[in-house]
Design brief:
About 15% of the residues lie in helices and about 30% in strands. It is of the alpha+beta class and about 190 residues long.
């Protein structure tokens, strides 16, 4: 015959025990969150661009460029666009917006002599970025990882928002039309 097992009633945790467990869980969660945030801190230099409207246009915005390892993250917010439309968005060769129409930035930034193509394509201009899609309020955002830094550094280059969507085929411009806003990309002092 088997001996009978007597089960003890489960001891109810005291308020002090529950508080200690909750504090421990909170501290572990906070430590994990802070560790996760460290993964997204800037590893390298940063640059910024303040987009100003070209003559007769109203598009404005900001863009930041942050190096993460061998890639550059581009985060931009642009307002004053035509609601619901796509607008070409490119880094251009020269950081000069003095012409008033954005033409002083010259062509797309293309240090490796590649064809114009979609930003997700390996064989493309270093300055090819995804088109901006304006919402109903005429505001567009983009947040993308793009080309490696180094010889393709965007610091000192021009940033242009175009009137039309980029067709990603027409060489060398993408047929994106007039230049609505212009900026010079400048290094941020650390």
């Amino acid at each position: 015959m088997l001996p009978s097992l007597r089960l003890r009633p489960r001891r109810r945790r005291s308020r002090r025990d529950r508080t200690l467990v909750n504090k421990t869980l909170f501290l572990l969660s906070a430590a994990a969150l802070l560790a996760g945030c460290q993964m997204f801190r800037a590893e390298g230099p940063q640059a910024t661009a303040e987009l100003r409207p070209t003559k007769g246009n109203s598009a404005t915005g900001t863009a930041t460029f942050t190096q993460f390892g061998d890639k550059v993250r581009v985060h931009a917010v642009v307002t004053g666009l035509k609601p619901g439309l796509e607008h070409g968005f490119h880094v251009h060769e020269v950081g000069d917006c003095s012409s008033g129409d954005g033409m002083s930035t010259k062509g797309h930034f293309n240090p490796y002599g590649k064809p114009h193509a979609h930003a997700g394509t390996a064989e493309r201009h270093a300055g090819d970025l995804p088109s901006l899609k304006a919402g109903k309020d005429g505001r567009a955002k983009v947040d993308v990882m793009t080309v490696a830094a180094g010889p393709a550094s965007v610091v000192g280059r021009g940033l242009i928002v175009h009137a039309q969507p980029d067709d990603y085929r027409t060489q060398p411009t993408g047929n994106a039309g007039a230049r609505l806003a212009c900026a010079v990309i400048r290094r941020v002092a650390n």
